[in-house]
Amino acid sequence: MTRAWIAVASADHVRIGRAGGFMQVNHGKEAPLRRLRPGDRVAYYSPQERNRDGAPVQAFTALGIVAEGPVYQGFMSAGFQPFRRDVRWLPAQDAPIRPLLEHLSFGGPGWGARFRYGLFEVSTADMDLIAAAMAD
Known about the structure:
This protein is of the alpha+beta class. The protein has two helices and eight strands, in the order βαβββββββα.
């Protein structure tokens, strides 16, 4: 059974992952990525453009399917080798979250709290709604 996930990262980090065919979450932690299985769907939500000081984005910025293969360590710098998972990224456009909130199961008051986890599971219906909003 395939599952659906939302990952959280700044838009500039999402673009790096899309270009490289991978995803990483929670500043490169391994454990969250082990929850995903090949065939699972994933959408990235980007609260802002850059990690610490970027302009607000508040949109879903990538949509993909987890590829076959294990979690592995990538290389970004001598002191940072984050864990990654390969993803087959789909053609998609950014989709602002605000118009979707009233339709998402997690879109009520305090909706942003779940995003603090960096990766969380959502229903198939939620993912279908996000994917439709991102249709290229």
